[in-house]
Amino acid sequence: MDFNYTPEQEQYRMAVRSWLEENQPPPLTAEERERISEDLLWERNKRWHKRLYDGGWIGLSWPREYGGRGASFVEQLIFQQELARLNLPIGINVLGIIMTGPALMQWGTEAQKARYLMPILAADEIWCEGMSEPGAGSDLAAIQTRAELQGDYFVVEGQKVWTTVAHRSDFCQLFVRTDPDVPKHRGLSALLVDMHSPGVSVKPLRQMSGDAEFNEIFFDDVRVPKENLLGPLNQGWQVLVSTLMHERFGISETIGGSEVILSQLIELAKEVEMDGASAALDDDIRQQLAQFAIEVTAKKYNGLRALTKRLKGQQPGAESSIGKLVSTELSQRMTKFASRLLGNFATLERHSAFAPDGDWMRRTLQVEALTIAGGTSAVQKNMIGERMLQLPKG
Questions:
Q1: pLDDT-based confidence at 253, cuts 50/70/90?
Q2: Domain harbouring 66, CATH code
Q3: I want to staple 108 with a disulfide (CB 3.0 to 4.6 A). Which of 74, 104, 326, 384 is the partner?
C-alpha cells in the first residue's frame, strides 16, 4: 500500500494549514486563564465552531446537498491532522456531527433531513445521544425507557444516564423500548426528542476531574410527535448499532490527539530535570517515549483500514472498535506518563501558583472517562473478538 499523499492532496493540506494558522483562536488572556470555566471554554469553542462553519470546514465529508463540502475521507483526515498539529478543537456539536447527522442521512426521512441537518452543522441546535441507562450501559439491548404510541404522539417515560452535553443540548437522539413483549434486541425504536419539551429534566453529574459534561436525563410523560421516529418502528437496534459505528469511527479520528500528546510529552521531557539533567536524556524515559511513538504510528496506519472501507463507500463496521480501543487506552497511558515526568507537580490543579503548563492533573483524571464513553474497552474487545476474529462468545 502506498501511504504517500498525492501532490493534489498535499496542496490541499497547505491550504488547510494556511487557513487554520490565519484563523485560529487567540491564546487565552491572563484574565481568561484566571477565571477559566466550562462556560467560558464552551463560548470560546462555539465562536471557533462558527468560524469553521463559515469557512466551510464543518462536516467536510457530508454531501453538499446537506451542507457539507462533499470532501473525500482523505481530505477530512488531512484536515483533522492539521487541527491536531495546532492542538485546535473540532467544534462544539461533535455528537451531532459524527453520530446524529450520519444516522439521519442513513435512516431519516427527507423531511427530517431538511429539518435537522443544516442546524446540526451550524451548531444552531446542539445534540446529545440518549443511550445508556442505570441498568443498560454496556448492554444497550437492555434499555427500559418506554415510549407508547398514543394517537399522533409517542409518550416517553424513563431515565438516561452518562449523557454527554445533555445540559447544553436542544435535541436528543433517544433510544426507547416500544414493544416490551419481544426479545430485547427487538422492540427498540429511535426518536428525535426536543430537549425543551415539557417533562424533560436534566441533572449534570460532577466528575472527579471537576467537569460535569455527563448528565442524567429524566422523561416524565414526554410527548414526541410520531413523525420524529427515526428509522422503522421496533427496529431501533439497527439504528443504534449503525449510530455507534459512526461514533467509534469518529472517536478514533477525533481523539486523534495521540500525536499531540506525544509531542507534548517530548517537550515536557526536555524541560523537566531528573537527577540534575534533562529527563529527555534518561535512557528509560527515552525508551518509553520511543514505545509511545511506535504505538502512535501503528494506530495511525491501522486507522487507514477503516478509512479504506469508507473510501469504498461502505459504512463503518467492527473495525472501528479497534480505533476506538487503541485511541482511548493509548491516550490514557500517555497522559498518565506525564505524572512520572512531573513528579509531585503533577498533582497541582491548574489554578495553583506552581501548576505546570498543560493542565496535566485534570487531563489525567479526565482521560479515565474515555475508556468508558462510547462503549467500554471490554465491549470493544468483545466486538473485535466476535465480529472480526470470529471467536466464540464467552
A1: very low
A2: 1.10.540.10
A3: 104
Q: Is the CB of residue 224 less than 8 Å from the CB of residue 147?
A: yes
Residue 211 cell numbers, joined: 467537569
The parent domain of residue 145 ranges over: 127-236
Q: Which three cell numbers stand for residue 41?
A: 471554554
Is 227 known to be catalytic?
A: no
Mean pLDDT of 300-309: 74
Residue 138 is classified by DSSP as S
Of the residues 82, 247, 253, 319, only one is catalytic, namely: 247
Q: State CA 2 to chain mean position distance.
A: 29
173 phi/psi in degrees, rounded to 5: -85, 100
Give the per-residue pLDDT at 136. Answer: 86
Both 370 and 287 in a single domain? yes
Question: Closest Cα partner for 238 from 191, 193, 192, 190?
Answer: 190
| 102 to 105, 184, 226, 348: CA distances (angstroms) | 5, 25, 21, 41
Name the residue among 186, 192, 180 with its Cα closest to residue 146: 180
Range from 137-141, 156-160, 339-343 carrying the lowest mean pLDDT: 137-141
CA atoms within 13 A of residue 100's CA, in its CB half-sphere: 33
pLDDT digits 0-9 by tens, 335-349: 999 999 998 888 877
Counting the structural domains of the chain, the total is 3
